[in-house]
Amino acid sequence: MDWDLIQKMRQGFLDTDGHLPDYWHDERWLSAYDQTLAQRIRWKWQAVLQVLAESLAGVHGISRIVDWGCGTGMATRCFLELGGRPAPQVTLHDRSPGAMRFAAQQIQREFPGTRVELMKKLQVPVEPFVLLASHVLSELDDHSYGELKKLAAAAALVIWVEPGRTLESRRLSAVRDELRTVHHILGPCRHDLPCGALKDGREKDWCHFFAPVPREVHQSAFWREFSTRMKIDLRSLPVAWLATVRPQYRAGIQEFSDEALILGRPRAFKGYCRWLACTKEGLCSGDFQKKHDRTIDEALREPEFMTILPRTQLIRKDDASL
Ligand SMILES: C[S@@+](CC[C@H](N)C(=O)[O-])C[C@H]1O[C@@H](n2cnc3c(N)ncnc32)[C@H](O)[C@@H]1O
């Protein structure tokens, strides 16, 4: 593994102010990325697709995947593996022809028989499609961002995964709020009201979660070296994500009005937990006293990828603020 190259690549991702020039110099870069940073992206997609499994089972009529900014094709590979449907047609789009070729090879190797087309200049497909977008929001100029949003609005289903950093998460929330008038929101929140993180006074908050990392990673010498060299804590995998569907492609969507979705990681103290949650009324935060309910206290101390609690039990008048 060429660790210096990965380090250089990662530093580029970290330093960006929202625009990055094409960095796929050759196949070495793609291969190194695919074995390291893209694997972490795979774990995020696995977590998101697992949460979405039930919702996706009810989605019908979609015959094409469009993977925008495909890189090495990780989003498509995860969707083909876990999206719960037979391999449809795949359109890969990236500004880098080398990346599209690499992604196509990986997809055809892992899912033989899948029809893959490469499109440097993307046209909106005529048939119903799922748009997959992954880790692109920190790299786009305004024009590409606008094009991508138009494509998302035209998609039957959108699944979009980003790093759990403020910049990407808040951009994704803005995409969500543009889509919510024409699409149903499948997750992470399960209401169609404006995103609470974008309301005035919430500038320091952002919608993000922590995806689980496969257990074997913690026993792997390769990942230990990755962690040491990249200074990445392997236990922490922050992610922001969004899934939406056009109503005609998903029957029986339920609204969940009485729930609180825990954002980030609650902070545990002796006797209480400090939490931030998304509710239909907006974001809400508070200190939950253990003495009120042990089950909720435990859920806050050891949160799952998506921790959803009964709103009225979490939010108590004496210790929460909207
Ligand atoms: C960080 S990589 C993510 C790749 C892949 N989606 C993943 O999750 O592993 C971002 C990708 O977006 C592509 N990209 C950046 N700006 C783009 C643009 N304006 N149009 C198309 N692709 C773009 C890059 O070439 C790169 O492959």
Describe the structure.
By secondary structure, the chain is of the alpha/beta class. It has two domains: 3-249, Vaccinia Virus protein VP39 (Rossmann fold), CATH 3.40.50; 259-321. The protein has helices at residues 3-15, 27-35, 37-57, 74-82, 97-110, 142-154, 166-179, 221-230, 294-301, 311-314, and strands at 64-68, 89-93, 116-118, 129-134, 157-163, 184-187, 209-210, 238-245, 259-262, 267-269, 272-279, 282-289, 308-310, 320-321. Strands 1, 2, 3, 4, 5, 6, 7 and 8 form an eight-stranded mixed sheet that branches. A hairpin with a 2-residue loop joins strand 10 (267-269) and strand 11. It is globular, with a radius of gyration of 20 Å. The structure holds S-adenosylmethionine (SAM). S-adenosylmethionine (SAM) binds at residues 22, 24, 38, 41, 69-72, 74-75, 94-96, 99, 134-136, 139-140, 144.
Secondary-structure topology with pairs:
Elements: H1 3-15, H2 27-35, H3 37-57, E1 64-68, H4 74-82, E2 89-93, H5 97-110, E3 116-118, E4 129-134, H6 142-154, E5 157-163, H7 166-179, E6 184-187, E7 209-210, H8 221-230, E8 238-245, E9 259-262, E10 267-269, E11 272-279, E12 282-289, H9 294-301, E13 308-310, H10 311-314, E14 320-321
Parallel strand pairs: 1-2, 1-4, 2-3, 4-5
Antiparallel strand pairs: 5-8, 6-8, 7-8, 9-11, 9-13, 10-11, 11-12, 12-14
Helix pairs in contact: 3-4
S-adenosylmethionine (SAM) binds at residues 22, 24, 38, 41, 69-72, 74-75, 94-96, 99, 134-136, 139-140, 144.
